[in-house]
Amino acid sequence: MQTPAAIRFDHLGQVFDTGSGRVEALRNVSFEVARHEFLAVLGPSGCGKSTLLRMIAGLLEPTSGAVEVFGRRVDGPREDIGIVFQKPTLLPWATIEDNVMFPVRHKRGRVGSHDRDRAQELLRMVGLEGFGKRLPDELSGGMQQRVGIARALHMDPDILLMDEPFSALDALTREEMGFDLLRIFSERPKTVVFITHSVSEAALLADRVLVMTGRPGSVLTELPVPVARPRGRETIKDPAVTELAAHLRDLLLQRDAA
Amino acid sequence: MSLSMPDFTKPESKRLDLRRILAAPGVAAILTILGTVALWELAARTLNIPSYLLPAPSAIFSTFPSIGAERWVGHVWATLRVALLGFALAIAIAIPLAIALVRSPALNRTLYPLLVIVQSTPVVAIAPIIIVVLGAGDAPRIVITTLICFFPLVVSTATGLAATPPELIELSRSLRAPAFREITQIRLPFAVPYIFSALKISVTLAVIGAVVAEFCASDAGVGYFIQFSTSMFKLPQAWAGLFVLAGMSLALFQAVSWAQKLLFPWSLPRKR
Q1: Chain B partners of A59 at a C-beta cutoff of 8 Å?
Q2: Rounded to a whole number, what is the largest CA-CA distance in chain A?
Q3: Which of A137, A227, B112, B228 has minimal CB crowding within 10 Å?
Q4: What range defines the domain where residue B134 resides?
Q5: What is the pLDDT of residues B156-176, one digit of tens each?
Q6: Are B15 and B96 part of one and the same domain?
Q7: Quick one: closest CA in A to B189, which residue?
Q8: What are the ABC transporter domain coordinates in residue numbering (chain A) (predicted)?
């Protein structure tokens, strides 16, 4: 028997009723993400990429079609999913450690020593060892986003949804964060859906890149990234990566011109 | 002409020192107040202003010892008690009410217009009615004070509760956390800066509320003391009462600022 895909979109459509009329955000979207696969979603602004994530998380119900996670139809929020937002959105009054443990405290009302140990371990993993007792505003934007990643991983979710997590960072920090992600997921494989505007980021990080069209968003094409793991700094210069990035850029530009 | 450095730098550095002293926190304010009082005293003496129009500061301050500490403390305590109890009651009503307004759109639609109507009614005008309904004692005064100072608290707290980053509300929903924790762990802490800016306004309004109540019916309190003094034509004494009230408001305002600094230092704008 074939194991079900981690995530499956089945002819999904989404129409929003805004005050000024109906807006079709997504049309006939179908794709799958295998377990422990890293899928990058690339597309113009307003193509409903974030809407896709919200549907996987069960925060939004599709107008038509369905989303399945591990073979089960999503009909409400699920806990085995971690989310990293565009902005770190940490709690400014809580220490870094408490921010990482926030999902547990928020869900159960208290945290144990095990949760604290796990927070320490995650902070070490994202390169923030020793920062546990600091407050968020003492950290740079890149460090804060690392805390956001650690927070999303604290409940050890099977699926990690990342909504343009590095778009607010400067170019160098952004590249650095990409390498860190490669390392983190090689240590601890996850099923990742990663939304981005950056073609090179998508080509560097993903196993497969899903290119979307503008509104209403639908799948333009899916391209595998023909580069083996483990990847690292030298992967950026890999001809396969640069070629793919150029191809992705062409796809997006063509679509914009049309 | 040669540039002899010491000749230029010495007076320059002295002037700089003076500037630095003036820039120190509070110094400018104290100098302004002292200057105003001095001008006032001068005007009262040279222009021969009758004391019932504008008593000289010296005449006002000389009434402090003649009233005596015990009477002052009695009046101040009467006003302070009502102001603080009314303020506390306002907080106890306003914050749960704001939470209810944010949680329930239906309640927001029905209750909010009612609140606006209550706020639009001049409380000073209904104060005598409240006193007739609730009788003598602190109760009507506390109610009047609460009515005067609770509205900014409701509006500001509700605004703060709604200003929480939507991502954290999504995080809370995705965790299927109990709804009350969304309030206690996310929305309320995020509303703290809003709540405190409203508390600062409300605490000074509470003093106004207590004085309005005393004007309507009372036999103690600084407001009562001012009314009583004017009716006896003791204007310097009435002015002294006014100074005490202003001092009380200032002290309460400061106390709220300190409470925020002490309890929620992260909620203050960052100094860089």
Answers
A1: 170, 173-174
A2: 57
A3: A137
A4: 64-267
A5: 999 999 999 999 999 999 999
A6: no
A7: A93
A8: 7-239
